[in-house]
Amino acid sequence: MLALFVIVLVSTVLPASASQIVEVCPNPYGSDNAEYVIVNATSACVLDDGEGKIPINLKGLVIITKNKTAYRLSFSRSADIEFSKSFALSNNGETLQLIENGEVVDEFTYKRAEEGIVYFRTSEGWNFRYQDWTSFPPVEDHV
Questions:
Q1: Which pTM was predicted?
Q2: What per-residue confidence (pLDDT) applies to 143?
Q3: Helix (H, G, I), strand (E, B), or coil: what is residue 75?
Q4: Given 13, 57, 88, 130, which residue has the most CB atoms within 10 angstroms?
Q5: In terms of C-beta distances under 8 Å and separation of at least 24 residues, what long-range contacts does 58-63 make, across chains too?
Q6: CATH number of 17-130, picked from 1.10.287, 2.60.40, 1.20.1050, 3.30.160
Q7: H or E element: which one contains 12?
Q8: Which helix (H) or strand (E) holds 21?
């Protein structure tokens, strides 16, 4: 009986998984109006770039962009939230923070962003691709 109590006590003390920044495109091809951040939100949180803050009150994958129309035209999918007027992704690099209950739960820093670069989180850490890259495996020709 005591062992069961200890297990239950430990499992209730462990924190739930925090929200994460999972993808950032600070300098899309063409207009910067399509720049975006994707967050996997597990609870209400705030995206902060040091100059502006965006409250996120949705759960799951949340797409936050400068302009919803430009984002849809560039990426053929809908965004959930538009940036606040004081929030913008710098092409010269910056740090983004995700805040839950007043605590920083995730942070992503990038340097000068080449046009079309998309940073994305993997199980091993961060990686990048360009907007026009496909996810298809390379084709080999055996002659």
A1: 0.83
A2: 64
A3: helix
A4: 88
A5: 61/22, 62/38, 63/36, 63/37, 63/38
A6: 2.60.40
A7: helix 2-13
A8: strand 20-25
